[in-house]
Specification:
Elements: H1 3-17, H2 27-39, H3 45-52, H4 58-69, H5 80-96, E1 101-106, H6 113-125, E2 133-140, H7 143-151, E3 153-154, H8 156-159, H9 165-171, E4 172-175, E5 178-181, H10 183-186, E6 189-193, E7 206-211, H11 220-231, E8 234-242, E9 255-257, E10 264-267
Helix pairs in contact: 1-4, 2-4
Length: 287
């Protein structure tokens, strides 16, 4: 692949998704775009790029962006955030929500393991929410992974990654050597195609936003843009949860870290001056 070829792909990804790919990650192009090369009956990645240069290649551009932005995921990935939701964040919100409504956004949800993990957490640990209006909105830029997520169907290999056997038996049905999540968990989840660089206003306001392991793929200006946009989608006392390698420090002054909760951020003007006792409630207090 020539330098000009790489630049063409890198520019396309940056403009359409914000994804930054550097020359040292060039091997990802061969790995992720190889199936497209074969599907189109082309001889090589270079031949694919020649097609990309031609007029009327929007469908191919979309296909390339989808292939390059589909990321690895698993159930209850990096278990710490789900422990924090269960032990602190959700109990605090239950105490404060007189409306008996809870909205959660799973941004860049990929094939759906994160929103389904959230749904299982709510079902198993918070019976009090049975009478609440619960909505989990799961979004991704890729229509292909969203279709998989909507189906709620996973291979044995996929459900074995991070999902305890007791939860598998309780929340999934075995169908034709696949595992399909039960309808009672799927009905509160809405999957929507959303580009984080686009207008997010249509999503409404959320009590919890999980945007984990997403910012690491963007440059600093793009991270700042996304963080400011997300800030407008979070309730005044709501929270943002980022991945273990991510932070808002130096990116966005709209958020401050919630004391005592790693990876959890609230609106800067609403962070209590003392440790966040409103978040650190025992599960027994609300279940």
């Amino acid at each position: 692949m020539t330098g000009a070829d790489f630049t063409l792909i890198a520019t396309l990804l940056k403009e359409r998704s914000g994804l930054i790919i550097t020359p040292d990650k060039g091997y990802l192009l061969e790995t992720r775009l190889g199936p497209i090369v074969r599907e189109r009956g082309l001889a090589s990645l270079a031949a694919l790029i020649e097609v990309l240069r031609q007029p009327g290649s929007d469908a191919l551009k979309n296909q390339i962006v989808e292939a390059m932005t589909t990321n690895e995921t698993s159930f209850f990935r990096d278990s710490h955030p789900f422990d924090t939701l269960r032990k602190s964040v959700i109990p605090g919100l239950i105490q404060r929500r007189a409306t008996r409504a809870l909205r959660i956004w799973s941004a860049a949800c990929s094939t759906g393991q994160e929103p389904y993990s959230i749904a299982m957490t709510l079902k198993d640990h918070f019976p009090i929410l049975g009478g609440w209006r619960i909505e989990i909105v799961a979004t991704d830029i890729s229509a292909g992974v969203l279709e998989r997520a909507r189906s709620g169907t996973y291979s044995t290999f996929e459900v074995q990654r991070g999902l305890p056997i007791q939860m598998l038996v309780r929340h999934f049905d075995n169908v034709d050597d696949q595992w399909r999540i039960k309808d009672e968990l799927r009905r509160n989840i809405t999957f929507r195609p959303i580009n984080l660089l686009g207008d997010l206003a249509s999503l409404g306001t959320f009590d919890i936003v999980l945007c984990r392991n997403v910012l690491i793929y963007f440059d600093q200006p793009t991270k700042t843009r996304i963080m400011h946009a997300i800030a407008h989608r979070i309730a005044p006392d709501g929270v943002l949860m980022l991945g273990g390698a991510e932070s808002v420090i130096g990116l966005c002054d709209a958020f401050s870290g919630v004391p005592g909760l790693r990876g959890v951020y609230g609106h800067a003007a609403h962070i209590p001056p003392k440790p966040a006792s409103w978040l650190n409630l025992p599960v027994s207090a609300v279940s």
